[in-house]
Amino acid sequence: MTEITTGSPVIGGYAHAQALDILAASRPEAIKACAEDVLTDLGGVTVLANRTGLAMLPFVDTVRNTAFHLGEVLVAEAHIRVPDRGVEGYGAVTGRDLEHAMAIAVIDAAIAAGHRTDLVLEFLNAEQRRQEESDRERLRKVEATRVQMETF
Amino acid sequence: MAYVATRGGERAIEQAERLFRDDLGTITRERIEAVRNGLPYLIDRVMGEASLYEPDLAALALAQAGGDLYEAVLLLRAYRTTQPRLTVAEPVAQTDLFTVRRISAAFKDIPGGQILGPTLDYSHRLLQVGVLKGESYTPDPVIPAAEPAPAVQPSLATWQKAQGLIKDYPAETVAPDDIPDLTREPLLFPASRAHKLQSLARADTGGTLALGYSTMRGYGSVHPTVNELRLAEAPVRMRHPCGTIFSAGRVRVSQTEVVSKAMELELGFSATFGWNEVKVIAAATLDLASNQPNPHPASNEEFVLYHTEPVESSGFCIHFKLPHYVTFQSSLDALRRVKTDREEATAGKIVAEAEDQSEEEEVAL
């Protein structure tokens, strides 16, 4: 995977893209609970958008390097503003879970405002560990299927 | 084309729909989850042909359609029209793919090695009939390797290009928003490669297989070998309002390169949503075959792309069962008129011949 870690850290050692990646791949119930905690004293929130919609996904052909559209992916997105703190938050996640998207947006706004950094960082660390472990376990099973055709 | 409304049939139509749904019973959240979790390859197929990735909706479409694939694809395509286009995501490159299966039938030793991944390719196909007697079937667990497989692998074509085995093509610099899009533009011929690959990505699996198989059997000049087959998960990378590009999640994709054994190595390509190996192998074969000069009609670009569109082809097919009374009555009227005209002409000819004969007899007397 191309991990987008470029850019300055916005919280702990996480670049903005990396934090958003982790939040989108988080367990829905866990991120919603974290967002609830963050929201408690974040201040008034204005919802600019909270909807489902389509993201067209282009793919690059390996033969002639032609980019073409593979199809559309349904995504849920949320865009909020926190006027008291002068920040905005945005989240998007594949699927129809508007609350998950909103939770990402709330935490994104909290990161921008430097609000509840300890809580958010703890959540990011825990989710990153879980996601990396999940991928690692999957890839260990995949590696078990490596074949040497001479001995097949 | 003319149709007539079925007057007085409203009640029958409503009851017919009720009867269809009555046979399927109550659709519950549990049923949808059972379909989604238990039949992921069917879900993949429906999402690929619908060109809309959302497993829950695909499971719902299948449940509502009672498993009728064309109805399910139509339901998803119809749902898609209710949703706004939020963005065009960043293009997926090979280095983005979380790869779980990558094999080559052309080269034994490929960079990165051959990973079988989840497959039944070398398995006995046996029904576990004990399940029908109440014995649950639990497969043996995978014994994981000590270390994980690499998450990303380069495409085999990249290595072949570096070796000078196949022609390289310069990468096109097209902004995502400017990539040709069949959902916004008509399919015209000769089709752009972007349109062709998008059309194959959303093509009907069965139709693609039928035409691809005919090409493989000899109705065309291409006999393919799988250069690389890959199952993976691709990130959907979107743009945050501040410009940050991030992944909103991953979707399952399959892709294939096929290689011809002609005078020089030539490759065909296909990719689609979901894990659907038959479709991408057949579609990559059709891509390769349609690039040949004077392709066989079975692999002619226009023939292939028009006839593998699942909604249009199934819709055209089943529309023939809808009332065609006016057009058919018109044909019947024409047939009757021709018959009457012929009979009158024949009768007139007989009368004329009889009169002629009578005149001849009179002359003879």
Automatic annotation (TrEMBL), chain A:
Pfam families: PhnG. InterPro entries: Phosphonate_metab_PhnG (IPR009609). It comes from the Bacteria. One of its GO terms (biological process) is organic phosphonate metabolic process. This is Alpha-D-ribose 1-methylphosphonate 5-triphosphate synthase subunit PhnG. It comes from Xaviernesmea oryzae. The lineage of its organism: Bacteria, Pseudomonadati, Pseudomonadota, Alphaproteobacteria, Hyphomicrobiales.
From TrEMBL, chain B:
It comes from the Bacteria. This is Alpha-D-ribose 1-methylphosphonate 5-triphosphate synthase subunit PhnI. GO terms for biological process: organic phosphonate metabolic process. It holds the Pfam family PhnI. It comes from Xaviernesmea oryzae.
